[in-house]
Predict the structure.
Amino acid sequence: MSRIIRSFNWIVVFWALGLCGCSEPTPSEAPKTAEPAARTEDGSKKTIILSAAASTKEVMEALADQFKTETGTEVKVNLGSSNALAEQILAGAPANLFLSANQQWADEIQRAGQVEAAARLLTNRLVLVVPAGNPGGVHKPEDLLSDKVKKIALAGEKVPAGMYADQSLEKLGLLKQLTDANKIVRGQDVRSALSYVERGEAEAGIIYSTDVGSAKEVTVAYEFDPKLHDEIVYVLVLLKHSSDNPEGRKLFEFLQSPTANTVYAKFGFSRLSQN
Amino acid sequence: MLLTVAEWQAVRLTLLVASVAVVVSLPPAVAVAWLLAKRNFPGKFLLETIVNLPLVLPPVVTGYLLLVIFGRQGLLGGFLERTFGLRFVFDWKGAALASAVVAFPLLVRPIRVAFSAIDDRLVQAARTLGAGPFDAFCSIMLPLARPGILSGSLLGFARSMGEFGATIMIAGSIPGETRTMSLLIYSQLDAPGGMEQSVRLVAASIIIAATALLAGELLERYGRRRLQGATA
């Protein structure tokens, strides 16, 4: 009897181990079981998927609501870092539109031949933020070198926000020293970096000016000169396999319309002219 | 060069974190295992549940709870940092803590099984010969439980190596400091072309984990053969 109980113990252990081994939820996993691109049938539910950079969470959700009210089509906003979203699309994720926070990841999709149409949509500004009370005493980028600043939160090396931040720090001659001193903490996307600052785990962080509103008590210490980094360009891409879905193109047009412009301005984004 | 610099860094860090996690959790694990194996007390099932909780909790929930306790604004974190300079978030010690917590149930279980198998009369005999309780524990129970302790340690080590969810939440992914092999593979996969890049690390992880398990298995069998007759 005790032997049965003992082997039962091991079965429970391995079963529990198996449970733990189950996939960790990755925050930016595309909804793989999402409905395929909606067809315009009578009475059927119409849905399109927009993969958007994490920094556009509030503005895209607001626009999605507006689009639904106007056309009845539901827009599922899939948020994540632009590089992760690009990877998902290249791997076949069923997105209809992709809003990338830089040109590079949109070009990557273009190279794979999946782009139906693209438009330079928005721009943003890069800022240095600090948590409540500014424990690191940071007022300008050079202050990041002081001993009071132990950790600086940036988005990942391949995330647009992280790339713009790296470029700025490099141009200011600070990047190498900060990296060597192990001060840089990488968040999965720009909002993750923001959360490190909000929790006080990092004494400073570099994010977009539009992100500041989403965290309580995080304040802007410094705004980076746009010349220090590549022009911040949000590119809106209409993906090829949605060309048979007219709703996708409608959303593509809608996001560039004057109605949308007022929403962008409300959230602090500026529209870019087409080049 | 088989692996890149960043990859070697990750391997060394992973081995460090896993070793520290096991070494630090071993004494409490032995104590708890002994308690569960040899003593009955009210609320024993509660202790059992708490010990086994990290096994079934989603690792990100474990990470969340660790943050609540050891984060800078958490219950203990601010105090520990101000008083002892002990920092867990964004520090390799946080990675070791996360690994220790998730490996703890795996350490306890085989040691408990080993302790329960030891005949109490051996300890009683030692006591009649004049040994104090602690002496009897160290000279009789520990050596006899050695296969279980070794097997638990290796299992805990292998689990620590694979820990991801709790680690990324509390320690972040800082190259050289907290970017263990699992975290490095994950971050490499996050960009196009990452799958090919990660092959080497994935192979290294499999080899290390398999070696640890194999060693545990062999050590346990060898130890068991030597101890035939001393256990019930």
